[in-house]
Amino acid sequence: MGRTNIIIMSVLLKFLYLLKKLITAPI
C-alpha cells in the first residue's frame, strides 16, 4: 500500500511540475 502511494505521489508531483512549467513558460 505504502509503495503504490509513494509512486502515485511522485507521478502527481511530476505532473504538477510540468503543468506549472507550461503555464509559466511564455508562448
List keywords for this structure.
single chain; 27 residues; mainly alpha; 85% helix; rod-shaped
Description of the molecule:
The chain has 27 residues and is an all-alpha fold. The mean pLDDT is 89.
Shape: rod-shaped
Bin the strand percentage: under 5%
Largest sheet: none
User: Mean of residue pLDDT?
Assistant: 89
Q: What's the alpha carbon Rg, rounded to whole Å?
A: 12 Å
Task: Spell out the blueprint of helices and strands.
Blueprint: H1 2-24
Brief summary of the model shown:
With 27 residues, the protein is an all-alpha fold. The chain has one helix and no strands.
